Amino acid sequence: xxxxIEKASKEKIKGIQEKKLKSLLKYLLKHSIYYQRxxxxxxxxxDAINTLEDLSKIPVTTKDQLQQSNDDFICVPKGKIxxxxxxxxxxxxxxxxxxxxxxxxRLAYNExxxxxxxxxxxxxxxxxxxxxxRRFMAGLAYFLGARKLGAGIxxxxxxxxxxxxxxxxxxxxxxxICVPSFLLKLIEFAQQHDxxxxxxxxxxxxxxxEPIKNQDFSLNVLASKIKAFWDIELYSTYASTEMSTAFNxxxxxxxxxxxxxxxxxxxxxxxxxxxAEGEVxxxxxxxxxxxxxxxxxxxxxxxxxxxxxxxxCGRNTMRxxxxxxxxxxxxKYKGTTLYPPAMYNVLNHFREVDIFVIEIxxxxxxxxxxxxxxxAKNESETLLTEIKDHFRAKLRVLPRIEFYxxxxxxxxxxxxxxxxxxxxxxxxx
Length: 429
Prior knowledge:
By secondary structure, the protein is α/β, with parallel strands linked by helices. Helix content is about 30%, strand content about 25%.
């Protein structure tokens, strides 16, 4: 199930996107209070925007602007809104997104082709290990996508390894949709209850919310630990509420495939200019086909690299590499630039580490400080020394590392209203 546009030449893909861009600009001019204001304030001549390169003539949209003018982005009357979701608020206050019936159809199409990219078909059954409630778009999107594709779906929700394994035994799912670190808890439960991991119906897991790949597409520490015990295919996926679009890996595991019929993607530097090929920059997106709240040149805050060469799967679309980190979460520590995923990778190396929380703050001099709070199975000076040595070896810096009570850390990891664990707390102003 590869859409024809994704197999087309790069020139044809670009032409189709430019046609869709022109339609979007007309739509925003007619219906969006926010973008009407932007076009007027910056004197944007929409007739002069005909190519993807012309996008640079339009100012970017930031998360702060989306938060501050949330309702002004809505382009439809209230009576056309079918569903309301909110972002997770990782980098600030949650933002409300409205979806029309057409938007839900688009969301279903997006997930259907994304699942198909990972090899899911009509004969497959998917076990959904994330919530569909609490205004969470992802769980709804996965359900709609599976339904559109014709695959079966088991809505188990998050957590509770015993219930997950009970569902696996009863319904024989072939794919799991989950946060990859939770797979380690499933593995631990299986080992404790004599479940043969490699004699189940499960053949793959679509991993959400956490990185499982290094920048060269090799498995990172977390994914390697999973694969060491459970021989299933792990598929990386990248998405966000604002995009209403996913970038999923195919069977060749070389980056998340771009769906050009749904989204325009730019990789920009600090001056909002397109980076050179092979360089890391911030992903900036323009949604196509969204009715209620389309976004134009929205800065996601995610730093990553784009890969332009065609894939062996037959798609000619751009692929996104693993997220290097969030731009606002960049840390300058003792002369070294760090992003949290690099520290997660170090900590995931140690099986003894149950959970962790990283806190970033400013010291009296205004420079960044890092405190790594760890709950471990067997606390010891030996383990602490090993973790410190691994930080020095892998990242060339040593943050402050301390043991904490697991219950105390879980209070930090699951604040009120949280839909997913929080492993980074940024206390910098």
